[in-house]
Amino acid sequence: MNAELDYMLKRAARGLMSRREFVGRASALGITAATANMLLSSAARAQEAVKGGTLRAGMAGGESTNSLDPALAASEVPFMVNMTWGEMLVDVNAKGEIDYRIAEEISANADATEWKFKIRAGVEFHDGKTVTAEDVVATLKRHTDEKSQSGALGIVQGISEMTAEGDMVTLKLASGNADLPFLMADYHLVIQPGGGVDNPAAGIGAGPYKVVANEPGVRHVFERNPNYFDSTMGHADSVEILVINDNTARTAALQAGQVHMINRVDPKIIELLKGAPGISIEHVAGRGHYVFIMHCDKAPFDNKDLRNALKLAINRQEMVDKILGGYGSRGNDFPINAAYPLFDDSIPQREYDAAAAAELYKASGHDGSPIILRTAPGAFPGAVEAAQLFQQSAAAAGIPLEVKVEPDDGYWSNVWNVEPFCASYWGGRPVQDQMYSTAYLSTADWNDTKFKNARFDELLVAARAELDAEKRKGMYSEMANILRDEGGLICPMFNDFVEAKREEVGGWQPDPNGELMNGRALAKCWLNA
Amino acid sequence: MHPILKLVVQRIALGLLLLLAVSLLIFLGTEALPGDVAQAILGQSATPEALANLRESLGLNQPSYVRYFQWLGGILTGDFGVALTNGQDIGQAIGQRLGNTLFLATCAAVISVPLAILLGLVAARYNGRWPDKVISGVTLSTISLPEFVAAYFVIFLLTQVIPIFQPVAMVFPGMSFWDRLQAVALPVIVLVLVVLAHMMRMTRAAILNVMQSAYIETAELKGLSPMRVIWQHAFPNAIAPIVSVVVLNLAYLVVGVVVVEVVFGYNALGQYLVDHVAKRDLPVVQAVGLIFAAVYIGLNILADVIAIVANPRLRHPK
């Protein structure tokens, strides 16, 4: 292999050159695209993990109010903290499949109402105790208790009976759920000794790193767990999360080498940061999406024509370009995209159509008074600007929108789920069932569009217990169509996770499940000397 | 009792009374917020039963005056309680962060106060001439920049263009004094830029005011050098207004620098307070509010006392 190709291959493997750029330059050397791609993937594999050093992440999304209790994690830093010291029964990997962690085998009965998880032998907690089936059951039980205030309460509520016997955990469900293993990968469900009942915030788990210092809102320091069962994680001797909520300071810290990776790169500066030496931008299409939500049970949004007029009056491509800086994809008014298993890509994309919107608006018989759209800077990044773009594109269709900017403080308690039309976001879920059950089932707590549709509910419950993938995909497709045409959700865009890392970071793999390689970046990456 | 001692004791007693009034205001203010602490903890998913249990365990069923005195008693004995959001001991968390706040404020004060006074004296000496115009022009432009703009500018200049400092200024227990100084270098530079002008202008104005007096003319006619006239004759009589503006700026350095803290990720009290306000963690808000009030009142008492001591008319009343 000639020296230039070798050099480019190394740069591409370390993320300093994009795949496309590599293939382009390789073809200039007379190498076909297929060969170039093959070379590249073997170069990425050949990168040997380097042990040692201190790997640091600078992150937005941490507060001094954060706790080590995994049940309470609600923002990005506690999520990453959980994923660094904690271990769940299973993980969902980058391809959307189950990776076995504390569980090493899973089986279900025919109607998916009874699940058995075999616990891996010899896995140790940080305090030296062995992880047992009893610990697993105690953990799940703690999350079912309302007092634990667990973010996973909705997930574990459907489990009617939990038993531990030897190395086997048996979970019986009130109704069948084919996705149960995916739900067990939830980042709140960190297995703790004795379920963490005595001291939920002790920070003792079975993950690749042990907690050394916990200063909420400032930094979290970890050291390698020498007894960790999986040698593909835990390369650096110690890892740190520095909480840097300010965008500029976070970016500057990365450039100055104070941290090795950052989350939440502001779309406005991606192009500038790309040119910085030693820095690469990492982005992956996730399941998170930005939305405008209408309450289907309140005037004027109880009128289906008006709802659909508004859906047609939003310019999705403009939103992706201007709000996400191109790092995202268009939404189609249902909360599912290609990052989900069993996604139906044949559902036609809804386009901006001012004429059709105007016609529907007329048909709705709305009196022409301004429709108030509430937003806040914190509803999602760029929410105020997005609302203004929406106002402009709707005005072109003759629909009068009035943008009302609310303060961030109290937005989630006073506006979201209260006011009939507002901006919001969803982080996405590992499987379709969970996304729909969380926010679109008639009886869901977080049914923030007040969407009630009997056929939709019926399909949701039926699909949950359906083990035939083809049939299930058909049901989800029908549900997506119902929501798209009847629902109160305007989903203009799915946002990518846009992150940045320094060139010395090795082992980076894009993961659509969550920020920073689904919270495992510190555990899976290493520092090239 | 010496009249000056009496005055000082009076001031301190008044200050304590004021602090007590502030504590009552803080308590009543947080009481007046809609919903109670139990509701704030449990959030929207609260069931009536869980609310009742939590109210019982937090002692919220007692009348508010009982709770006020319990709270006050706790604080006087050094017990601030625990944060509702993460159960950490408030006293411990505040202790560390207050230390960081004071460290940053001290560093900034040690540089900015002598520098501001010196520049003020020089500006007064060359009143209306180019050194005065340069000093006033530069300091007034730095104070006119919003803090975060100054901070971003300093970050850009000193971490990217000339990479000699680190942009994130967190300090941790176990860091050496030298490391700490290095960590806070950038926020200190920003704070100096922000507070310099106010103190400098006040020094200059106070000196120029005194310079109008007849005795200064006498000193000049004796043939003393202008700098000597300012330093030995004018400055002692201008101390009172200078001290009060210096102290005002010191108080600002302690209680008002949350923006700078956020930009540099500096883990001090302001950031801690803002985080807990956002989560309605009232015990923390009350405790930090009281500490800020105490700092403010304490520094103002100090300014009063210095002004009294520095004023011969108050020192030797007829």
Task: Tell me what the structure shows.
The complex is a heterodimer of chains A (529) and B (318). Chain A has 19 helices and 19 strands. With 529 residues, chain A is of the alpha+beta class. Chain A has four domains: 44 residues, no CATH class; 116 residues, Periplasmic binding protein-like II (D-Maltodextrin-Binding Protein, domain 2); 110 residues, Dipeptide-binding Protein, Domain 1 (Dipeptide-binding Protein, domain 1); 207 residues, Dipeptide-binding Protein, domain 3 (Roll). In chain A, the strands form five sheets. In chain A, strands 1, 8, 9, 10, 11, 12, 13, 16 and 17 form a nine-stranded mixed β-sheet that branches. A four-stranded antiparallel β-sheet of chain A has the order 4-5-7-6, with helices on one face. In chain A, strand 14, helix 13 and strand 15 form a beta-alpha-beta unit. In chain A, helix 1 crosses helix 3, helix 2 crosses helix 3 and helix 11 packs antiparallel against helix 13. The longest helix of chain A has 18 residues. Chain A is globular and about 70 Å long. Chain B is mainly alpha-helical and 318 residues long. Chain B has a domain of 190 residues: MetI-like fold (Orthogonal Bundle), CATH 1.10.3720.10. Chain B is built from 14 helices and no strands. The longest helix of chain B has 36 residues. Chain B is flat. Chain B starts with a helix and ends with a helix. The relative contact order of chain B is 0.13. The mean pLDDT of chain B is 86. Classes of the chains: A alpha+beta (529), B mainly alpha (318).
